[in-house]
Structures are given as structure tokens and as C-alpha cells.
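Question (not urgent): is this output format expected?
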Amino acid sequence: MIWDELDSGLAQLRADGLLRRRRTLDAPCGPEAWIDDRRLVAFCSNDYLGLANHPALIAAAREAATRWGVGSGASHVVSGHLRPHAELEERLAAFVGRERALYFGAGYMANLAIVPTLVGRDDAVFADKLNHASLIDAALLARAEHLRYPHGDMEVLAHRLQRSTARRKLILTDAVFSMDGDLAPLPELFDLAERFDAWLVIDDAHGFGVLGPGGRGSLAHFELPPSPRLILMGTLGKAAGGSGAFVAGDRRVIEWLAQRARPYIFTTASSPIMAAVLLASLALIAAGDDRRAHLRQLIARLRAGLAGLPWRLPPSPTAIQPLLVGDNEAAVRLSGRLFERGLWVPAIRPPTVPVGTARLRISLSAAHEATQLDALIAALRDCAGHPH
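Got this back:
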């Protein structure tokens, strides 16, 4: 029976230490979480600048609800494109230095829109092996040849681009890798895109708002020039503190997406409240140098404090700091011991990460205080000294 197969599959996930557990929070997103009447310091959200519960964003939401109501009522291409949506797209394009931008309800949706709209059969997608699941699904949905190169290996990528006889080529990569926190070699990728006449699609989910002058993201961090072949996707539910995503680039590319991308055309537009919130968020991001400086100080403090522990801390200059444990059950146990001490750090296991690389994903925020970070460092050092 099909139900027996589900029961068996769930039992196997439990036996392999891969069963996920949702926790219900009784407080807004922030550095402290309330779960089952317990206060915990949370190192697990992607609210990198601490804006998710910012008073200015709350005020913008209240004002927008009064002015624009709650729902958009239709897709953008019918009657759901309200003035806050239009203003947000204009501001986003200017903010990242591209000709035009398109606003989506989620980053996953945006990625599923870009790739299949630009390439298809007889084409090829060249993707980093550690790309986010949404990029993997986007490449599969395109029905193009899907060629995955070893993480960050430009030599292998160049060789595969050179050998390819595909009609159109598209290089697909995260800018900041969500489980490792390292940066893609974007200048080298751009050079290869120029050399082999390929699209370059960059998912800047974890760089937007954090990296680059004024928080303009990974492209600004690497000083990549505007180019018709370069397409940027940035999510707005992480450092921006809201929800949704945008795609920015050459005006012709964005118009093509607006005309042909199924995830854009065939879905109801997001609430105008969120568009208004994100307009307020952009102003805070632009003026957020102090927040970004504090975040960099926390990153340095954590890395210095965890030096010499038995778990490996790979190089990462970003708010994502992965502590590699290896074994699934060991990672879950370590996460549980921290939870008992009032510290919430999630254990990340396959298939999110490769087999044998289960880890604690420590996510830092500008809203964290140094004392909260010191408590985490002390707890991890104590767990290392008392492994059981």
C-alpha cells in the first residue's frame, strides 16, 4: 500500500537522523526566540541586519495596509501591479545599478522563472555543485543539458564550456553559498561568460544587503560592470527583513521575463504591504554601514573564539559560519546540547549538505550582542571538552 511506503520512508529518515522538526515560535524574528515558554538565543535566522522586526518596517506596513489594503487581487500582468510594486522595482534597479528589476513573491519562484525562460532544449546550463536547491530545480525545469562543475573549480568549468556545442550556454551560481558561507569567484565567472558568450545568472540571496558598498550585494563587492549577459537574483526575506525577491538586469532581459516567465505571469502578485515595507527596508540597508561593521566584528569574534575546537570551521567571511561535525547523529546531539543551554543552532544534514558533512549552521545577525556570542563560544568549548 502507498501508506506503508510513506510510513517506511519516514521511519528510515528517523533511523538515519534526517527527520526534520518544526518549532513554533511565540515571538517575532530576532536574536531571541520564545519556544514552549523558553527563551533562547537564536543563531539560525537569515535576518542578517536585524531588520525583520524594525519599527520603521512595522510603521510602513501599517501605513500601507490603510492606504492599499491587504491583497493585490490578481497577477502583475492583469490588475495586481499596484503603485508600491512599481516603485519598489524602480528603486531596486537603481540600488543594484541595473537597468530594470522585476519583483517576485519568493526567491525560489524567481529562480524557477529565470533559467527556463532563457534556455531550453539544445541549450546547456553549467552549475556549481553546491548551488541552492532552487537553482538545481530551475536547471532541471529548463530541460537543457545540466552540467555540474566541482565547487568553485574554474578550470573544469572553462573546459566544459569550451567543449560544449550547445546553442545557448548559461552559467548558474550562488554568490554566497548558503551552507558554507563562502563566495563564488564572480570575476572569473564573468570572464568565462564573456569568453564563451554565455548568460551568467547569479543568486545573491545571502549577499544582498550585507556585502558591497552600501549593502548593494556581491556584484558591487566584486565591482562587476553592468552587462546584458549578467542577471542578478536577490532575495528580500533575509537581510532586507521582509519577503520576496527580485531579478535585475538588462531591460530587454527583464521585459522577456515579464512576458514569458510562467512563475511571474501565472501567480497572484504579492501584497502591496510587503512592497511598501521593502521600500522602507532599502533605505535602512543603504544607511546600514554601522550594522554591517558590527556584523563583521561578530564574525571575527566567533572565528577567534572557536579556534582549536575538534570541529572544522571552514573559511567564510560572511554571516554564515558552518561548524562541520560530520556524522548526522553527532550534529543533532550537539545541537540538542546547545538547545538545553538556551542556544538555538540548527543541525544541517543531507540532502541539504553532502553526506558526511553534517554541521551546525551558525547564522549571525547585526542584532546579536557580543555577550550572546560569547555564551555560544563558551558552550561549544565546554561541549568539546565534555563530548558526551
